[in-house]
Amino acid sequence: MYIDSHAHLYLEQFDEDIDVVINTAIKSEVKRIFLPNIDSTTIERLHNLEASYPDNCFAMMGLHPCSVKENFETELSIVKHNLSQRKYYGIGETGIDLYWDKTFREEQIYSFEQQIVWAKEFDLPVIIHSRDSLDLTIEIIAKHQDGKLKGIFHCFNGTVDQCKKVVDLNFMMGLGGVITFKKANLEEMVRFMPISNMVLETDAPYLAPTPYRGKRNESSYIPIVAEKVAQFKNMQLYEVASSTTRNARDLFGI
Ligand SMILES: [Zn+2]
User: Which structural domain range is residue 217 located in?
Assistant: First the structure.
């Protein structure tokens, strides 16, 4: 069995055929799917999908760095309010994105640190998005790591050295479709990454693996990522499946 530790299956890209998408994932042995939130506009969709598939879909709550704008304080208060209402399985996704827009850099850092505090308070993993900001996000996690903080550097595509730092912080790294892209050159880093620090993810609908690159990603493609990991690390597929599933279960507490 596999776990997709990161998918946005509640977005409108799946409105037409979500039942097929979930059932195809289950048939491909991807039976648990963790859903990171984006911002206040996606919460209702997130909750509705989870309610439709309570055995397969698990909601997380947070504010995405690309949604940190002038109104970030209102957005954060909505996250906080929701966290107090029910159980979630993680805080996120949060982090820092300096690729698209640096205007709200300081606000993104504030939002990230606030969500780290909540992750500790609620004893939940923090799901980290870092784009053009991996050293900075690692530095911030290091500052807050008191032995109690846990989480995932989602869509990890750093160097061997950055991977080492994340391992030292006792954090997980999410591997997805990007490792199947030839030009990504992540083979050496994946070979180095201890299997004990690895979880699988799709980030659906984004970042579909080869041979579906450029198309809509979905959770049933998780085995393609697992096969690539097995190939890079010279491991059996079932070892990759069982280890990454165990890691995700331990982290999310299911
Ligand atoms: Zn995401």
Answer: 2-252
Query: What is the distance between the alpha carbons of residues 112 and 157, in angstroms, rounded to a whole number?
Result: 20
Give the tens place of pLDDT for each residue, 44-90: 999 999 999 999 999 999 999 999 999 999 999 999 999 999 999 99
Mean pLDDT of 201-211: 97
The Cα–Cα gap between 104 and 7 comes to 25
CA 7 / ligand 1 centre spacing (Å)? 6
| Number of domains observed in the structure of the chain | 1
Q: List C-alpha distances in Å: 90 to 63, 127, 135.
A: 12, 7, 22
Residue 100 has pLDDT above 90, yes or no: no
For residue 10, what is the DSSP state?
T
115 C-alpha to ligand 1 centroid (Å):
16
> What CATH number does the domain containing 30 carry?
3.20.20.140
8 Cα to the center of ligand 1, angstroms: 7
